[in-house]
Amino acid sequence: MNIKTSDLVCLGERAASTWDERDRAQTALDVAFGTPFEAAKDNLLRDITIAESSGVDLSIFSGTDSRFKFPDLHTNIVVRITRKPTPHTKLEKLAEKVTKLEQELKVAKMQLKHTAEQLVAQHECDEVTDKITLAFTRLK
Description:
Layout: H1 5-53, E1 69-70, E2 75-76, H2 89-121
């Protein structure tokens, strides 16, 4: 299949045009609805957090009978609560071990990258395309 540069430019212009339309619409949507939604969500989250710390049973906001199901709005608000264990010496020792292993992994990944760069620079191995991505940004 032969693809010409001019074909790619035409496809790029079409993609840029549709992205511009979507971006402008998204901006208008965010101005009209984004700020009120974020404020309402933040207020709800704040009060749910206060209720939970006060001992209110939040299980009524989960499951099939959730009080946060609003069929007339076709909306369900899902409340996810993440819990962590209280401090314990056994957990602290394992956490230290995990931290050490994560640091060793980071160093090993840096060594791998450095060695690969050296091998390519010395023409001992080649590079192949891994993936291609597109990013759309506003011109200033």
